[in-house]
Design goal:
- With about 600 residues, the protein is α+β, with helices and mostly antiparallel strands.
- Among the domains are: about 130 residues, PAS domain (Beta-Lactamase, 2-Layer Sandwich); about 170 residues, Histidine kinase-like ATPase, C-terminal domain (Heat Shock Protein 90, 2-Layer Sandwich), CATH 3.30.565.
- The protein is built from 13 helices and 19 strands.
- Strands 13, 14, 15, 16, 17, 18 and 19 form a 7-stranded mixed beta sheet that branches. Strands 2-1-5-4-3 form a 5-stranded antiparallel beta sheet. The chain has a 5-stranded antiparallel beta sheet with strand order 7-6-12-11-10.
- Strand 4 and strand 5 form a beta hairpin.
Length: about 600
C-alpha cells in the first residue's frame, strides 16, 4: 500500500517537473521568436526611413550651385535703386518659379532661400497665403548648422504651415563668401502609411524621448517619460513642435538609453521592445510587440500539455488505448509544426526579397546625385530650346522653331532611355530564368552607373565586339543587372580610394565576357569579369568579403549587403561569383582586384 502511494507520488512529482520544464522551454522559445520578428521589422523600418531621407539629400547642393540663385542672393546684400525695382521684381519671380519647379519635380514639400540674418527672401510657396517670404527662421537649428558650412538636418513642425517635415539646409557661396542659405523641406505626413509592421507597433523619437512618428496617432507628440524643465525649455526655444505642450504617456516604464531588448510597460500594458539609433538623423527607432501574444501562445501550449498529462493519468490502466491516442495527438502536432515551418519559410523568403529590393534602392540612392545631373542637364536645355522656339515663333521663323522642337524631341528620348533603365533595374523579381544576352545586360548596367563613371573620371574598357558579348546565359535579367551594378559601383569606389596612385596615371575598370576555361562540369558556362586598378582587397578581408553586413566602408556609405546579396543571387541562378586580387591572377605586382561572375550558357 505504501509502495503504491510512493509510486503515485513519484509519478505526480515527475509530471510536475515535466510540466515546469515544458513551461520554461516554451516560454524561452516564444520569447526568442518574438525578439527575432521585432529585430527584422526594426531593420526594415530603419532601412526605409534612411532611403526616404537620403532621396532628397542632394537637393540643397543642386540649388546652392545654381548660378541664378547665386546672382539673386548676391543682390540681397546690396541696396537696389528705384530704377531697378522692376528688374528686381522680375528676378524674384524667376527664382520663385525655379524653386517651385525644384519642389514639384523632386516631390519635396517646399524649398526657400534665406539671408544670413535668417529672413526668407524667396520660396516655392510664394503664391500661398502661408508663404515663407519675409519670415525669419534664424531660430531653427538647421539654419545655424548650415551657417557653419555643414549640411543641416532637422525634424520639426513648420512654424508657418504647421506641417511635420524633415529639413535639409546648405550654405550658398559666391567667390568663397557665404551669402545665404537654401532650405528644402520634406513632408513626413504622407510617408508614414507605407511603414506597416504587421501586428507590431513602432515609434520614432528624438533624443529627449518625444514621439513624432508612430503607428498609433494617440502617441504622436507625446514623450515616453516626463520631461525635465531644462528639456522643455530646449524644445520651446527651437520651436521643433510649434507651440505644442509635450505631455508624457500614462503609466509608462522603460529605459530611454538602452539599445538592447527590454521588457517595458506602456500605458499600463507590457511589451517587448528593441531600439536602434538611426545615426543619419540622430533618431531612436523603436519596434515593440505586446507580451499578451506570447503569453497566449504559452498558455495554449501549456494547456495542451496539462491535458496530455491528465489524459495519461486517466488512461494508465488502458495502456494500449493511451498509446494510440498519444500517437494520433503527436501526428497532429507534427502537421501543425510543419505548417508553421512552411509559413515561416515563406515569410523568410519574402523578407529576403524585400532585403534585396531595399539594397537595390539603396544603390540607386547612392547613384541618385549623378543620375539627377544626367536628367537635369536635358531639362535645362529643353527649357532653353522652348524659350527660343517661342521667340522664333513670334518672329515667324518656323524653320528655327522646327529645329528647336527636333532638339527637344532628341533630349526627351535621351531622358526616356535613362528612366527606362532605372525602371527596369528597380522592379522586383522572384527568379524567372530566361536567356539573357551578356552584351545587353552589361550595357544596361553601364547606363545606370555611367553618371558615377563620369563624375569619378574613371575610364571603362568594354566593347560590344568582345568575345562572348553576343552569347546568352540562363538567368534572371533583373538579378543579373543588380549583380553587375553592385560590381561596377564597388570597382569605381575602389579606384577612388587608392590614395597612393599616381594622379597622372589613368584610373580604369575593364569588363570582359568570355567562356569559363576552368569549368570541367558537363554544362558549359559564360563569365563576366569586372576588373579595376584600385586599392585591391586585403588578405585578411578576402575570406569575409561575401559575408552579410561585412564592409570596409563607413556606415553612411553602405550596409555591407551588396556583395553578399550578389553572391547568393549568383548561386540561386546555378552560377558562381569569386573575388581575387590582380596580382594573384597574373603573379605580378598589378594593382586592383577582379570579380568573376559565371552563369550557365544557353546554346
Amino acid at each position: 500500500m505504501k509502495s503504491n502511494r510512493l509510486a503515485l507520488f513519484l509519478l505526480f512529482l515527475l509530471m510536475i517537473l515535466a510540466l515546469a520544464s515544458t513551461y520554461f522551454l516554451v516560454k524561452e522559445n516564444a520569447k526568442g521568436k518574438l525578439q527575432q520578428n521585432i529585430s527584422i521589422q526594426l531593420q526594415q523600418l530603419v532601412n526605409e526611413l534612411e532611403i526616404i531621407l537620403e532621396r532628397h539629400a542632394y537637393l540643397p547642393a543642386l540649388v546652392a550651385d545654381d548660378q541664378a540663385v547665386i546672382d539673386f542672393m548676391s543682390l540681397q546684400e546690396a541696396p537696389s535703386s528705384t530704377e531697378d525695382d522692376e528688374s528686381d521684381e522680375a528676378q524674384l519671380s524667376r527664382i520663385n518659379a525655379y524653386l517651385e519647379l525644384v519642389s514639384n519635380t523632386s516631390g519635396a514639400s517646399s524649398a526657400f532661400l534665406m539671408r544670413l540674418d535668417g529672413t526668407t527672401v524667396a520660396s516655392s510657396n510664394w503664391f500661398s497665403p502661408h508663404s515663407f517670404i519675409g519670415k525669419n527662421f534664424a531660430f531653427r537649428p538647421y539654419f545655424q548648422t548650415a551657417k557653419q558650412n555643414i549640411l543641416g538636418r532637422y525634424y520639426g513642425i513648420g512654424a508657418v504651415s504647421g506641417e511635420r517635415g524633415y529639413f535639409f539646409a546648405r550654405a550658398i557661396h559666391s567667390h568663397e563668401k557665404m551669402i545665404g542659405v537654401v532650405v528644402v523641406k520634406i513632408a513626413m505626413d504622407d510617408v508614414e502609411f507605407t511603414w506597416g509592421v504587421g501586428s507590431m507597433e513602432f515609434m520614432v523619437t528624438d533624443k529627449q524621448g518625444v514621439i513624432f512618428l508612430s503607428s498609433q496617432d494617440r502617441w504622436k507628440l507625446r514623450s515616453l517619460l516626463p520631461l525635465s524643465r531644462e528639456k522643455n525649455q530646449h524644445i520651446s526655444a527651437s520651436r521643433r513642435y510649434a507651440q505644442r505642450h509635450i505631455q508624457a504617456l500614462d503609466k509608462t516604464m522603460l529605459k530611454l538609453d538602452q539599445q538592447d531588448f527590454q521588457s517595458i510597460r506602456l500605458e499600463n500594458k507590457n511589451y517587448e521592445m528593441l531600439t536602434k539609433n538611426m545615426i543619419l538623423a540622430d533618431w531612436d527607432v523603436r519596434v515593440f510587440a505586446s507580451h499578451s501574444n506570447m503569453k497566449q501562445a504559452i498558455s495554449t501550449v501549456m494547456l495542451v500539455g496539462s491535458l496530455l498529462i491528465l489524459l495519461l493519468m486517466a488512461l494508465a490502466a488502458v495502456l494500449w488505448r493511451g498509446q494510440q491516442q498519444r500517437k494520433k495527438y503527436q501526428l497532429q502536432i507534427t502537421e501543425q509544426l510543419e505548417e508553421k515551418v512552411a509559413k515561416r519559410t515563406k515569410a523568410l523568403k519574402q523578407s529576403q526579397e524585400d532585403l534585396i529590393q531595399a539594397a537595390k534602392m539603396a544603390a540607386l540612392g547612392q547613384l541618385s546625385a549623378g543620375i539627377t545631373h544626367e536628367i537635369n542637364n536635358p531639362l535645362t536645355a529643353i527649357r532653353a530650346y522652348a524659350d527660343n522656339a517661342q521667340q522664333f515663333l513670334q518672329k515667324d521663323r518656323l524653320d528655327m522653331v522646327e529645329s528647336n522642337l527636333k532638339e527637344i524631341t532628341s533630349l526627351t528620348e535621351s531622358m526616356a532611355a535613362i528612366t527606362k533603365q532605372l525602371k527596369s533595374f528597380s522592379r522586383k523579381s522572384k527568379g524567372q530564368f530566361t536567356p539573357v544576352l551578356l552584351g545587353q545586360a552589361i550595357n544596361n548596367a553601364l547606363a545606370i552607373v555611367n553618371p558615377k563613371l563620369l563624375s569619378s573620371a574613371v575610364v571603362c574598357h568594354w566593347s560590344v565586339q568582345d568575345h562572348g558579348a553576343n552569347k546568352s546565359v540562363l538567368a534572371d535579367e533583373v538579378w543579373l543587372g543588380q549583380i553587375l551594378v553592385n560590381l561596377l559601383t564597388n570597382a569605381i569606389s575602389a579606384t577612388q580610394n587608392n590614395a597612393s596612385k599616381d594622379k597622372a596615371q589613368e584610373i580604369w575598370i575593364s569588363i570582359k565576357a568570355k567562356a569559363d576555361d576552368s569549368q570541367l562540369s558537363d554544362g558549359s558556362q559564360l563569365c563576366i569579369q569586372v576588373k579595376d586598378n584600385g586599392i585591391g582587397i586585403d588578405d585578411s578581408t578576402l575570406p569575409h568579403i561575401f559575408e552579410p553586413f561585412f564592409t570596409t566602408k563607413p556606415s553612411s556609405k553602405g550596409l555591407g549587403l551588396g556583395l553578399s546579396i550578389s553572391f547568393n543571387l549568383a548561386k540561386d541562378m546555378n552560377g558562381s561569383l569569386i573575388a581575387q586580387n590582380n596580382s594573384a591572377i597574373n603573379n605580378n605586382n598589378e594593382a586592383g582586384a577582379s570579380f568573376m561572375l559565371c552563369l550557365p550558357e544557353v546554346h
